[in-house]
């Protein structure tokens, strides 16, 4: 893409063009937003993520103004959606957005589309109230969610569904986890205040702090680098509950399955440094991120690439006292942080995830010592990936029994089995599911696979 001198284009045109390229690659090309935005500046990230958040409302709106939308080039289609986002959800003057969009088409090397972009957006400005009123008659398009996901959430959470859909479109807060072995939470909040950063405590866990406004990690006091150990990490309060519920004790053998990028691994070691902890992930590249996070925190664990479903790839045969299974899932509980999930996920993915989750959970349970505890976790809101998976284990393995966690988390909703946190105001977290299972001592089988 052409990187132009700022004076050559209308203000904001370059950021709009770069954001449109990202939106095209994600919404129309199926790429991950995280990957596409990894090296982009804040302005591009804001436009792109905002457009992806509202794409399923905005793209149909502008496409109604096209004579042959099926013939539209992907980047121009994305540019129109990104421009509509700026018109609807930014403070920029609307006519300045139109001028920037015309120049953005040139930056995208689509000079032949400038007339169309100008005409469509000016018509959108004059007709948008009527167009959006028609679009908004359907829940899916009004809330920018795919119809299949709206239906799934309505089945699972008929009373809470409107709040879930609204929460998914919120800008997520920045929540931190303080290493309480190195700082008290009050002391760290004082450090934040000294750095000009307002924050408040969250009740869900004793280490959670939420910033009033997000900042870059480089601006966080005590984040750590080089020889200085980090005393704080970025982690949603709901995710922080995993280490609490697992309840690992000093000296225990602990397995953190599906551990990348290592946030929960670090928290386990902060709470209980004296653990024989093994962190495993199937993705060798992501295993490197676990090591990076532990290095920043100056914590130690055995970190390996391996497949939980094939224990011989990493396991020495000695049972674990605690196992955390943070299973791969649809991520429908973290849409407010990853709005591309609404565009990338398909209804057929849920059954596929559930099948993998059952395999991982059963394999992990076979590595659990008698009397040991396994915590199953997802960031999904869908019962097929949550309580249904745990019920499958409980019904298929006579040594598995559920452990109640409801009394530990008043913000959560009790399920059968387990607990669910919903995204948004109720708990102030993203959406997470947790269920604890113990292995009875009725039998002697402790290994498998």
Structure description:
- The protein is α/β, with parallel strands linked by helices.
- It folds into three domains: 132 residues, N-utilizing Substance Protein B Homolog, Chain A; 60 residues, Alpha-Beta Plaits, CATH 3.30.70; 203 residues, Vaccinia Virus protein VP39 (Rossmann fold).
- Helix content is 43%, strand content 14%.
- It contains 17 helices and 13 strands.
- The strands form two sheets. Strands 5, 6, 7, 8, 9, 10, 11, 12 and 13 form a nine-stranded mixed β-sheet that branches. Strands 2-3-1-4 form a four-stranded antiparallel β-sheet, with helices on one face.
- Helix 1 crosses helix 5, helix 5 runs antiparallel to helix 6 and helix 5 crosses helix 7.
- It starts with 12 loop residues before the first helix and ends in a 10-residue tail after the last strand.
- The N terminus and C terminus are likely disordered.
Average residue-wise pLDDT: 94
Order of helices and strands: HHHHHHHHHHEHEEEHEHEHEEHHEHEEEE
What is the count of β-strands? 13
**Beta content:** 5-15%
**Count of helical stretches:** 17
Main beta-sheet strand count, sense and barrel state:
9 strands, mixed
What is the CATH third-level topology name of the largest domain? Rossmann fold
Portion in helices:
40-55%
Which CATH class of the largest domain applies here?
Answer: Alpha Beta
Report, as a whole number of angstroms, the end-to-end distance: 50 Å
Shape: globular
The chain-level structural class is alpha/beta
| CATH-defined architecture of the largest domain | 3-Layer(aba) Sandwich
Domain unit count = 3
The fourth-level CATH homologous superfamily of the largest domain is Vaccinia Virus protein VP39
Low-confidence stretches: 1-5, 444-449
Radius of gyration: 24 Å
